[in-house]
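Morning, I've got a small favour to ask if you have a moment. I owe you a coffee for this, so here goes:
>
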Amino acid sequence: MGEFPPTTVILPTTEWTTACAEVAEQLGRADELLLVCDDDSDSIADRVDDLPSGVRLVFAGDPEGCSGKANAIAAGMRAADRDRIVWTDDDFHHPPDWLARLRAGYEENGPVTEVPFFVGRDPLSTLLEPIYALGGTLGVYAGGIVWGGAVMFDRADLDEAAFLRDLRRSVSDDGTLTEHLDVTPLRRTRLVPVGGTVRESAERHVRFTQIVRRHDPAGFAFMSIVAALSAAGALLFPLPAMALLTLLQLGIYGAFGIRRWTFLLAYPATLAQVPLTVYAVARRTFVWGGRRYRWRGKFDVEVVESG
């Protein structure tokens, strides 16, 4: 590890999780891990005097005009003592070589990101796995899009002041970073459990949809048309459509090393996508991390209600 520049890992969280311990164990002597929470009412604050070496707690405060996640990342960037930066999340497994492989990826390619595969924990999020495999896994990889769960870059790779200015008035941390950073996605997939209840999954789907709508309106319009045509074709020619959609998802799952039976849900997921997209666009507010947001425009965010 000594051959690589020292790194700051920024991990927004409100509690000490397995992921926190996994990342802390991978730090080099000159690295640091910043655990970013809102304030001392979060449970992780109880560990402030009992954190491993190289780990610090950062209080971001309540967000104003941006999401709690964006606010936490901005606070972490401000507090970071290193120029080489990693963002990650607390909701997926970080194997022992996770940080080392990100370092190696950066040395070979410059800024890099891994890709997520969202694993459903309730009926709705399970149904949507094929949709997220197409947009959230293949889309991230093929489109050069940042996933905030595993991205490494250097401060010199972007205009940090401009980026932070935009981040402080946005919902999406990764959507905003994508607009400021040229990144190489690695075909290395992390399984991210999502949902738990249908309500939680509906709120997540609204947020995902609105992120694409705000940050890539032309792409969103194109994808909406494709989704509508796919659903129409699936209704008009059910058997051929079922076969083609299932084979398409099997190919995507296979390309990213995903062994999940949910590729078989490709046909019903395609039918469900159109009404769910209409629902997501029609919603005026959504809940994320205990806060309710109203997102009027890409840089017009109101925190309606804090948890």
Residues 217-236 form the longest helix (20 residues). The CA atoms of residues 139 and 145 lie 8 Å apart. The chain has a mean pLDDT of 96. The chain is about 45% helix and 20% strand.
